[in-house]
Write a structure and sequence with these properties.
The chain has 6 domains: 13-122 and 346-438, Rossmann fold; 128-182 and 320-342 and 764-792, no CATH class; 201-303, no CATH class; 444-484, no CATH class; 507-574 and 732-757, Rossmann fold (3-Layer(aba) Sandwich), CATH 3.40.50.300; 581-720, PCRA, domain 4, CATH 1.10.486.10. Helix content is 54%, strand content 8%. It is built from 32 helices and 18 strands. α17 runs parallel beside α19.
């Protein structure tokens, strides 16, 4: 029973229900600015007030920062009330030991605690992702070599079909398939039954039906453009043209079978008449171009002679799929053995071990299900299938989930927003479980919310975005304080536009100038913002403005433009660790040292490594000196012009066999006086932190018996990847007296009175998928059918 809400509480009716509803699974759909973190904190406090010990709660988040923040919020609330509720003292005392942590930390804690049930060491831990990826790639290469030696005919057919010069690209595709399989709870079982499950008549017919539906969907898009023409034209000449256009497409639009579509797709659209209303004619022209493009798509889709040919093409991939399965099974077996040997696993491995633990130990599972009062999950929209499976093993109709599917941004981190969407729909239709909507936004003005709703209502649907953007998902105005503080200024979206002319400025520079001028104007004109702490309007200052971009590549342009306008700008850019000057040059010193002990490596790498070193802040060699060194024998030239550099490289190279990697790195720091010379780069504390962290990372390599070449390959793997880096957890503080600029991704959870969104002309980049071997959880291993081989 939910207690009656007193009149003097700050909570809305929906928030009150979200705090006090209990005795069932509860899903709280909490829109942006709805106070969901405050609600979650208050719910925990109310549970503790009932006499439930904090060790009977599991509170799960997706980042360590969020877990730390939640723990501090609970601590703060307990400290406020412990004098009037002394029975809560123990909960405050043991708060640091409470299960308020990330999913990954929770799973690791369980696996370590009950390691003896799983035949793993208590010292089991999370391994470095780059290290594990490198090892997996090495194993894939080893397995390929073994298959070559076995002279397996099916394997050679596979190789001949998908390679031309070498198998590098093919190995990369197999690596990506392995990563996809990691997301399956039981990939061994999946691989064992793969051929039987994906190569049968039922699947062939299902795929054929889906393909036909895709064709029908494309035809419907053509019909939509025809309707759009009818809606925009009034000119009689163009009305007659519209009829002729529809007549030319009539057979295609009436078709329902593959054969019918194929026989009617070869269409020559009638030309637009020369006379007629000019503006309407231009609109018709645009729609005709779109129809023409869709017809080209259809022709490509209808290139198969018959439905039987489509099914035969599906069947033709079976032998290749069998080879892939054999390779992957062998790779995964060896990879698991390696991880077990070094006692390092990835997060997904640990979560799956925890699932296995509860699946194979009924007594332990029953204990958790009876002992745990409630499992509370924050940012539930970012849950993945494996995390969901783990929770299902220990829950007992006592899971409290908070999230907002509209804010799901981590699909690239394996999140599955479908879990949230399906559960929301199920709970809404259920009498057993409950879904609560927190739709009031207490952060933004009504005009801002109305504008956001206008955009989302146009673009969001169950298919795109995972929500039917209705009253339960649209943002509702909730902060009534704004109504008492209104300045005579427009609070709606302001679209700042510019012409794509032939000026010397790039579009990025134009946008930077526009934003800078607009901020300067607002400051000069004393633009009013609402100060939530003061509860009143005040003049805007620089810290009230933020600029949000889709990426960080244009940050330097904004820095230069804002310096021109004398506007203070703080750029929040997580600097690449590996690609920073001090770390990059150390990587090249390592390459140079290894070159001196490996002739082939010397031929391929020494020149490039030395050039980088000479150009760096450590040496700052002139162009003349560099050119003279490279005109002759590089080692001789280096010894002649920079004898100290040469002798340092020689000395360290001779010690390599007798030193650990961390000792080698220490020698480099000492010989090249790196701690002293990084002063030239500025921000000395940051540079020293990186150098110290790098040394600690090399100590980890020591424990794994890395060679110098292993360490170099590790660093090269990160540098060659656009997505990887070493995270040392260095974050910049939000500036209070300067304009802040950051990526949209980094801004999650922050709020500013005035936001500028730039780079909106940037388009999505769609990778070419036609010649790739892919993995999809629903469709399995997707294998292209062609005879010309892959491009390397």
């Amino acid at each position: 029973m939910i207690p009656i809400k007193p009149k003097n509480v700050i909570w809305s009716d929906e928030q009150w229900q979200a705090i006090h509803e209990h005795g069932k699974n509860i899903l709280v759909s909490a829109g942006a600015g709805s106070g969901k973190t405050a609600v979650l904190t208050e719910r925990i406090i109310e549970i503790l007030k009932k006499g439930v010990s904090i060790d009977r709660l599991i509170v799960l988040t997706f980042t360590k920062a969020a877990a730390s923040e939640m723990k501090e919020r609970v601590r703060s609330e307990l400290q406020k009330i412990v004098s009037t509720h002394p029975e809560l003292t123990n909960n405050l005392t043991y708060l640091d030991q409470a299960n308020i942590q990330t999913f990954d930390s929770f799973a690791l804690e369980i696996v370590k605690k009950y390691h003896y049930f799983l035949d793993v060491s208590r010292e089991i831990n999370i391994g470095d992702k780059v290290l594990l990826d490198l090892k997996r790639k090495e194993i894939i290469n080893d397995v390929f070599n073994d298959f070559y030696e076995s002279e397996n005919k099916a394997f050679y057919d596979f190789i001949n079909t998908f390679t031309i010069k070498n198998d590098n690209l093919l190995q990369q595709y197999l690596f990506q398939i392995c990563l996809g399989l990691d997301l399956l709870i039981d990939k061994d079982k999946y691989l064992e039954s793969y051929i039987a499950n994906y190569y049968n008549e039922v699947v062939y017919n299902d795929r054929l039906t889906e393909y036909l539906d895709l064709i029908k969907f494309t035809v419907e898009r053509i019909r939509k453009h025809l309707r759009r023409i009818d809606n925009i034209i009034t000119d009689e000449v163009l009305v007659n043209y519209s009829e002729r256009l529809k007549d030319s497409l009539a057979d295609l639009l009436a078709s329902r079978t593959y054969r019918g579509f194929r026989e009617s797709v070869d269409i020559k659209l009638p030309q637009i008449p020369r006379n007629g209303d000019i503006e309407e004619k231009e609109l018709v022209r645009r729609e005709r171009v779109k129809i023409s493009d869709l017809l080209k798509e259809l022709k490509s889709m209808l290139s198969y002679a018959s439905e039987d040919e489509i099914i035969n093409e599906l069947k033709s991939t079976k032998d290749h799929a069998s080879v892939i399965i054999k390779i992957v099974k062998e790779v995964e077996s060896r990879f698991w053995d390696y991880k077990k040997k070094i006692n390092l696993f990835d997060f997904l491995d640990i979560a799956k071990l925890a699932i296995t633990l509860f699946e194979t130990n009924n007594e332990l599972r029953d204990y958790y299900q009876s002992h745990i009062y409630e499992i509370l999950i924050d940012e539930y929209q970012d849950t993945n299938d494996i995390q969901e499976a783990l929770i299902s093993k220990i829950s007992n109709n006592n899971v409290y989930m908070v999230g907002d599917i509209k804010q799901s941004i981590y699909r690239f981190r394996n999140a599955n927003p479908e879990i949230f969407k399906n559960k929301y729909l199920d709970f809404k239709a259920s009498n057993k479980d409950v879904a609560i909507d927190l739709v009031k936004n207490f952060r933004s003005r009504k005009e801002v919310l109305d504008n956001i709703n206008l955009v989302f209502n146009k673009v969001m649907s169950l298919e795109l975005g995972g929500v039917d953007y209705d009253d339960n998902h649209s943002l509702k105005f909730g902060n009534l304080a704004y109504l008492k503080n209104i300045a005579p200024q427009d609070y709606n979206f302001d679209i700042l536009t510019y012409e794509s002319d032939e000026s010397d400025l790039t579009s990025v520079e134009k946008e930077a100038f526009i934003v800078a001028r607009d901020i300067k104007k607002k400051i000069d004109e004393k633009y009013q913002v609402f100060d939530k702490k003061l509860g009143t309007l005040r003049d805007a200052h620089f810290g009230d403005f933020t600029i949000l971009a889709s990426g960080k590549k244009n940050f330097e342009t904004y820095k230069k433009v804002f310096e021109y306008f004398n506007l203070p700008l703080v750029i929040h850019k997580e600097e690449d660790f590996i690609r920073s000057n001090e770390i990059y040059v150390i990587k090249n010193i390592l390459r140079a040292i290894h070159s001196l002990n490996d002739l082939q490596y010397y031929k391929d790498n020494f020149k490039d490594a030395i050039l980088s070193l000479l150009r760096s802040f450590l040496v700052e060699a002139s162009d003349k000196d560099i050119s003279l060194i490279f005109l002759g024998d590089i080692k001789e030239g280096l010894n002649l012009r920079f004898p100290k550099i040469y002798s340092s490289l020689i000395n360290i190279s001779r010690k390599v066999e007798n030193l650990t990697l961390s000792e080698i790195l220490g020698e480099i720091y000492k010989e090249f006086d790196i701690y002293y010379k990084v002063v030239k780069l500025g921000d000395v504390e940051d540079k020293e932190n990186k150098l110290n962290y790098f040394l600690a990372k090399f100590s980890e390599f020591d424990n794994l018996n890395f060679t110098l070449l292993d360490a170099i390959n590790y660093l090269e793997e990160i540098i060659n990847s656009k997505d990887l880096d070493i995270d040392i957890g260095m974050k910049s503080e939000i500036a209070k007296d300067a304009i802040n600029m950051m990526t949209i991704h980094m801004s999650k959870g922050l709020e500013f009175p005035v936001c500028y969104y730039v780079d909106l002309s940037v388009r999505f980049v769609y990778k070419e998928l036609n010649d790739r071997i892919l993995f999809d959880k629903e469709y399995g291993i997707i294998i292209p059918v062609f005879r010309e081989g892959l491009k390397d």
